[in-house]
Design brief:
Rieske Iron-sulfur Protein, four-stranded antiparallel β-sheet, binds FE2/S2 (inorganic) cluster, 2 domains, Naphthalene 1,2-dioxygenase Alpha Subunit, Chain A, domain 1, alpha+beta, 22 strands, globular, seven-stranded antiparallel β-sheet, binds fe (ii) ion, about 375 residues
């Protein structure tokens, strides 16, 4: 799992002014709420006093109050009140928890889990510019949790070949060969445009079947991912002017569980009464994917490309692994084994930007990281 990345923590409406929200990301606890101005705040979720879980507390004047002894923490993470010490007690600098940069985009609260200063932080990807165009696109939110690793989950979405075998409604099992397509690398990810045979007419049902009944040819699919936010956009066009966009972000809950949050937008059958049919198809596709991906072995993506028999049709998955490994090579990968050991007796947290200026005055320790190294893609090429 990577630090120094943006992750979607929650939907914007779930983060409230009067009530803290607990969220698990990268195996750690966070608390989200809105300060007195209504700005979303994300703090490390464990109290620096004696480990109370802040999301079980209350919000007082835009601060979160720990449920154990009532210490209050402001949006910048500083403890501003220790009730047992009495009014006006001086609170040492160490009385604080990490506070993470937050941005709201696409109706979601994105949190930057890492210590990079603002000028070095990558931008949240612009992979869903249609978000505000509600004239031309009808969008629906979806969310689910998967009992599998975030990389395994994301590789599944970037893999075009699997659709023909895993998905009843849109796979083309009768024509599974994939055309070779050029994969174009982007700064933090890659994109590809593919053309694939349409599924058989009898695979479709409901309103969609009526629309696509006659003269349907190939489907063109544009696919793009970014390791920033671990998000991707899948954009099939069934016939000119008839498209779907699925934009999804993955947040690792821990190494073995992943939360997906997404939007699906369509530019046909835009009336709300068609939502239920689309929603049912999303649920079906998620169930189909999870029935395979939650069982894939090994549970974590191998560290070398040579540990699986990859072919040219796995190009986007390989591009994804390389993008993750490039980020890891900067020293941004959590040392999972050291973390599992040490966390039993010590609270470990993602370092926040304030630690750069003042690395000392903290109670909780930064999570152990794998040191910067030559990235695994170059390593595996040499193996
Ligand atoms: S543990 Fe949070 S106030 Fe004591
Ligand atoms: Fe799938």
């Amino acid at each position: 799992m990577l630090i120094n990345n943006w992750y979607v923590a929650a939907c914007a409406h779930e983060v409230q002014q009067g009530k803290p929200l607990g969220v698990k990301m990268l195996g750690m606890d966070f608390v989200l709420f809105r300060d007195a101005q209504g700005s979303a705040v994300c703090l490390s979720g464990v109290c620096c006093h004696r480990g109370g879980v802040l999301s079980d507390g209350l919000i007082n004047d835009g601060c979160v109050a720990c449920p154990y002894h009532g210490w209050e923490f402001a949006g910048d993470g500083a403890c501003v009140k220790i009730p047992a010490l009495g009014e006006g007690a001086k609170i040492p600098k160490r009385g604080r928890v990490d506070s993470y940069p937050v941005q709201e985009k696409y109706g979601w609260v994105w949190t930057f889990l890492g210590d990079l200063p603002e000028e070095k932080r990558p931008a949240i990807p612009d992979l869903f510019p249609e978000y505000d165009d509600t004239q031309n696109w009808r969008r629906m939110p979806f969310q689910f949790e998967a009992k599998c690793n975030w990389m395994r989950m994301e590789e599944n979405s970037l893999d075009t070949a699997h659709t023909n075998f895993v998905h009843r409604a849109f796979g083309a099992r009768h024509a599974p060969a994939l055309e070779a397509s050029l994969i174009e690398e982007t700064e933090w990810g890659a994109r590809v445009a593919r053309t694939k045979p349409a599924p058989k007419t009898e695979q479709k049902s409901g309103d969609m079947a009526h629309l696509l009944q006659k003269g349907r040819k190939n489907t063109s699919v544009n696919l793009e991912f970014s390791v920033i936010g671990v998000c991707h956009r899948i954009n099939p066009t069934f016939r000119p002017g008839m498209s779907l966009i699925t934009f999804t972000a993955r947040t690792p809950i821990d190494a073995y569980r992943t939360r997906a949050i997404g939007w699906q937008a369509r530019n046909y059958l835009m009336a709300p009464e068609h939502d239920a049919e689309r929603m049912a198809l999303i649920d079906e596709a998620v169930r189909e994917d999870l029935s395979v991906v939650e069982k894939v072995q090994p549970p974590l993506t191998p560290k070398s490309l040579s540990h699986e028999f990859l072919t040219e049709t796995d190009g986007m998955e390989v591009a994804f692994r390389k993008a993750v490994w490039r980020a890891a090579s900067q020293g941004w990968e959590i040392d999972r084994q050291a973390f599992e050991q040490e966390r039993l007796t010590r609270v470990l947290v993602i370092p926040s930007p304030a630690r750069r200026a003042d690395p000392k005055n903290w109670i909780h320790k930064s999570v152990p990281l794998i040191a910067p190294h030559v990235d695994a893609a170059s390593r595996s090429a040499a193996e």
